[in-house]
Design goal:
InterPro entries: CheY-like_superfamily, NreC/VraR/RcsB-like_REC, Sig_transdc_resp-reg_C-effctor, Sig_transdc_resp-reg_receiver, Tscrpt_reg_LuxR_C, WalR-like. GO terms for molecular function: DNA binding. By secondary structure, the chain is α/β, with parallel strands linked by helices. Helices cover 52% and strands 14% of the residues.
Length: 218
């Protein structure tokens, strides 16, 4: 796995690089701003980019804009975005670009090394990883979409865990149910969200994107 890190906080940037190198991961570049990040992606062709949401010069949305642009240039690039706190609009913007291999974590999650590395590996493998706090705040702040109201309480639990990027076995473990039960719930979710087996898009990704869009709508 080859990684570019874009983070303006030098301590966090170098700390991430040391952590990943200790895990045998190839950190091909570490940069402090969005322009250098895009240049590094073009030069090194990494598998994954870890990107801070806010970077110089304005410390507003440079990181998220650069992440979206990097994905436009290299659709196969997996992106894990880091943020100091939940930024609802940015989380929604990132995931509504579509595709696989996307993650959004709070920076505090980096300190929980195993959780962080698990999320990184899921994203690198084409999955999704969304910080549980992001999911929780989106649910609290907003009203559910009408289509989500078709789901049972257990189905909503399953979909929320899907949005965090968990696979079926991890969801089963979290909810203390069988893998078969999770599979049935997911099939029911697809049916209630009108996602037919013939849909060309990945139904799991589409369900998560609808969930994020619905819970992120004002």
């Amino acid at each position: 796995m080859r990684i570019v890190i874009a983070e303006d906080d030098s301590l966090l940037r170098e700390g991430l690089a040391l952590l990943l190198k200790a895990e045998g991961i190839d950190v091909v570049a570490t940069v402090a701003n969005a322009a250098d990040f895009l240049a590094a992606v073009g030069e090194h062709g990494p598998d994954v980019a870890i990107v801070d949401v806010r970077m110089p010069p304005t410390h507003t949305d440079e990181g998220i804009v650069a992440a979206v642009e990097a994905r436009r240039r290299r659709p196969e690039l997996a992106v894990l975005v880091l943020s100091a706190y939940v930024e609802q609009a940015f989380a929604t913007e990132l995931f509504t670009t579509g595709g696989s291999g996307l993650g959004y974590l709070l920076k505090e999650r980096v300190g929980r090394v195993e959780e962080f590395l698990d999320a990184l590996r899921r994203v690198a493998g084409g999955g999704t990883a969304i910080d549980p706090e992001v999911v929780a705040q989106l649910m609290v702040r907003t009203r559910p979409d009408k289509r989500l109201e078709r789901l049972s309480a257990r189905e909503r639990d399953v979909l929320a865990l899907m949005a965090e990027g968990l696979g079926n076995s991890a969801i089963a473990e979290r909810l203390v149910v069988t893998d078969g039960a999770v599979h049935k719930h997911i099939r029911s979710i697809f049916a209630k969200l009108d996602l037919a087996p013939t849909d060309s898009a990945d139904r799991r990704v589409t369900a998560v994107l609808r969930y994020l869009k619905a819970t992120g709508a004002r």
